[in-house]
Amino acid sequence: MLSVVACAGDTPLAPPPASPAFDPTQLTGGVRYRWPSGRTIAVFVDPTAVPSTLDLAGAVTAGTTAWVAALQNRDFTFRIASRADDADVIIHLRDAPALVGAATCSAPSPSGGGVTFICPGTDTALTLPLLTGPRGRVKVDITIATFSSTTNTQLRALVTHELGHAVGIGGHSTQPTDVMFAAPTTAQLSDRDIQTLRWLVAQPYQLRL
């Protein structure tokens, strides 16, 4: 649920919208998932196999900044982790070896430009165990295909889209001007993207990340 604490100089966040602009549970069978309010989400960007022409770390920084700004720095924040065992989310290219297992779920099949993988438990997403080293606490694994991201502009659009899934938007928009369009071409969040996220974080979650 959305928790707003106003401090001196803060601009209060407007009340949450009455409905999302598009269904954020379209891909999850109606299940709402998200991080607990107030969470700082640690993201590890795997540099393995990243071409010198692509800035994956920069795309992640831009994407995380956009989603946090959509909520005016409320409800969740991000930080970049330097190690996989200190991460809640891992982002890597499809050409890189997997860093985590699939827990009790079936491993996702490669499809499209990106895949955001979460293994649901009863009411909490299962930890995806690291394949080497300590178990870690990874809940979300994001795979990016370079064939869909031949330029940094395309990469930013795709990474921002997948991060939208990682924060709880488990659906696609039908409007190509939205970041959450199924084949994203923009990294700029639309009013519809923001409306859907703001509606989502005001709802009780059914699956906790």
User: Briefly, what CATH class?
Assistant: Alpha Beta
What is the share of helical residues? 10-25%
Category by helix and strand content: alpha/beta
Radius of gyration: 16 Å
CATH homologous superfamily? Collagenase (Catalytic Domain)
Name the quaternary structure: single chain
Describe the structure.
The chain has 209 residues and is an alpha/beta fold. The chain has one domain: Collagenase (Catalytic Domain). Strands 3-2-4-6-5 form a five-stranded mixed sheet, covered by helices on one side. Strands 1-7 form a two-stranded parallel sheet. Helix 1 links the parallel strand 2 and strand 3. It is globular and about 45 Å long. The N terminus is likely disordered.
Annotation keywords:
single chain, 209 residues, alpha/beta, Collagenase (Catalytic Domain), five-stranded mixed beta sheet, two-stranded parallel ribbon, 3 helices, 7 strands, globular
Short description:
The chain is an alpha/beta fold. It is 20% helix and 15% strand.
Describe the protein's topology:
Layout lengths: L32 E2 L4 E7 L10 H15 L5 E6 L7 E5 L20 E4 L22 E5 L7 H15 L24 H11 L5 E2 L1
Parallel strand pairs: 1-7, 2-3, 2-4, 4-6
Antiparallel strand pairs: 5-6
Helix pairs in contact: 1-2
